Records
---
Amino acid sequence: MSQVVERDLSLRESHAMDASGLRLVPEGVARPNSAKEVMAVVRECISTVTQITAAGSQTSTTAASITDRGVLLSLRAMDRVIDLDTTSRTIRVEAGALVGDVKRLAAEQGLLFAPDPTSEDSSTVGGAIACNASGARTLRYGATRAHVRALTVVLANGQTAELRRTPLEKNTVGLHPVHDPIDWFVGSEGTLGIVVDAELALLPLPVRVTGLALPFDDEASALAFVVAARESALVPRCLEYFDALAIGLTRDAYGDRLAAPGATALVYAEDATEDPDLDAWLALAERHGAGVDDTRVFEGEGPLKEAREARHAVPSTMNERGARRREAGGRKVSTDWAVPYRRLADAITAARSLAEQAGIDQAVTYGHAGNGHPHQNFIANDAAELARIESVVATTLETVIAMGGTVAAEHGIGKIKRKWLPLQLSALQRGMMGAIKRELDPNGMFAPGNVM
């Protein structure tokens, strides 16, 4: 009888769903409290030839954190803070620590953990590393990868590897892909090893942050403003777009907190400079047709949190709507494609045209316009509608790739988007991925069905 893997049906069913809308019941669940216990689970699975899928809070939108093949390894109990060093500006935490908790601990010391996935209060550091999570402020700070300094990883042989980024500024030894093994695991979606703890880089906490919710009469004007803001002397740390449907969801949840009555398009920007030039922001917005008299301004921790809550109402509401359609074979279908930011208006127009031609409801469109990266959320009411929506998404992705874009900018590939990987990666690139997988996980033990 296993001492580390639990087989109780109710426990397995409680780990069978994430934010993807799929339901996969694992054959067993392990809930380790330490790296030593993770090693014990891996070694038991080696001996029984059992596959393992690591998970945190299971907020994945791509089914990367659920499985019906082998053991679901929940790292959520491993949430300890190992060290916070204000001199080196680093924090070391276990994989199950919540991103939001890390951010708050850092802020207490006048420091900032920059990655800010919308689900930061429910997503874990291990999950953020697994899919190289980003968020609204990626525009200025970059995704999670740039902030990972060291990792402890349990490998497929049951041993741990301690990895640390080199401080070297120059290095010509060997092929570039082997220079920094940390980058093998960031974004690998649990397919190459199990991250059990991480050392993360911190930045000085901004002295002042100002949020601006700028209303526009139409989508084209709002997206033209995004391009202009990126190419101006202003220093936005985020440029978020909301279409009319997305604004409606924020209004249903929080009234006019984010958008004034009558707004049909909205850009939310944040300026983290100590002395923001609000006149320049408003003048640029006005030149692109913004209703500057109806602009909302957010300053201070409380108001900025309120703006973030209103933004989060969009995906949370869509998740709830999708969940109600599961029994009928439907679910939420979410995209996270991206294009070069100057092409975003063209890409959204093309996506809307494809949806109209297919006779499906338009997606709720919102998100990281500053990076050319919107989210489009559809609700499939049943299996037949799901098939039509996925067909439209596939054609949209072909258009996106032709514009120099990507099929996944933020949430990873997981199981749901694996079928679209060949749209972007050549056979040679996929072959290289397979070679790395075979070297690190020769028996295919980790995260079956994810990515590859």
---
Amino acid sequence: MAGKAANVSDYRALAKARLPHFLFEYIDGGSYDEVTLNRNVEDLQSVALRQRVLRDVSNIDLSAELFGKKWAMPVGLGPVGLSGLYARRGEVQAAKAAAAADIPQVLSTVSACSLGEVAASGHVPWFQLYFVRDRDFVASLIERAKAEGCGALFLTVDLAVPGSRYRDARAVNGALARLGGYLARPGWLWDVGIRGRPISLGNLEPIVGKSAPLSDFQKWIRANFDASVSWSDVAWVREQWKGPLVIKGILDPDDARAALDAGADGLVVSNHGGRQLDGVSSSARALPRVADAIAGRVPVLADGGVRSGLDVVRMLALGADFVLLGRAWAYALAARGGEGVSHALKLIDAEMRVAMALTGTTSIAEIDEQVLDRNGNQPSF
């Protein structure tokens, strides 16, 4: 695809044309038969909105507050692993795009660029934390997030074991096949493979070294991630981290209540982008139940299937206070670097304004269940 990207789907096509096959499959794929991955998109798109007219929508304000800061819109860049391989020093480019748009970025534990490198760009990210078996190392990551001045810690709890990702398994080939894949994408090879070095898992270098096992990433996860984690481990993190603590990976109302009991300051309704347990609810279906269980006691964030500003409005109407983008920004980064991310965020902004105008809302606080058309052709959420 050679033309200008008009939406996230266009950026997906551009990313597919530019990335080596195994990297595109890593971004794009889900677990098992990808039922939940597809539900995330389809269920969200099926949410019918209530069109209103003659409401004076000449002044629309997208700003929203989260964790003590006012942001330009209720949207952030969610954590996406290995995104530093999609474009040269990709997480840094994404941080600069987030800064320009005045929105937050959540940096993945398994980013290619380290937390220190991204923070040095001038836009200190929030940090997403995974549990690995070495608790001393987990503690050191928390200390590093404190030292860099991260405003929030996102603890991802739905990866005790990795999902069975068929596309990743099919895409893993021998060294010769990978080399052929690199040579087939000369633009990526020059930008990332040659000019983007060092290529590693920046935050994990102290335990995996500078030559991180990128070619066998899932095997490393299985060997090092910890299936024994429990709510007591969340309490352990809570003791060490005094800033906002957000639990990411909640689908069940009982788990949402347990997270509050453990001291969470926020939740992310998420099924890991359909990459873990296939067949579970889409984020759109789970969100209203979780939001009802929380009843406004802490902010509820959501991700999964968001491909437009219209989808952001849908998530807000279903009960989210803030929305995290995942594949949407990763595709744009892979296609055109930080410039692509900036453009994708401008598209989200413009699409939100149209959706708000045509639903008769002028501020984020006005977007609630009253914006939903309960008589429309949509599933009963």
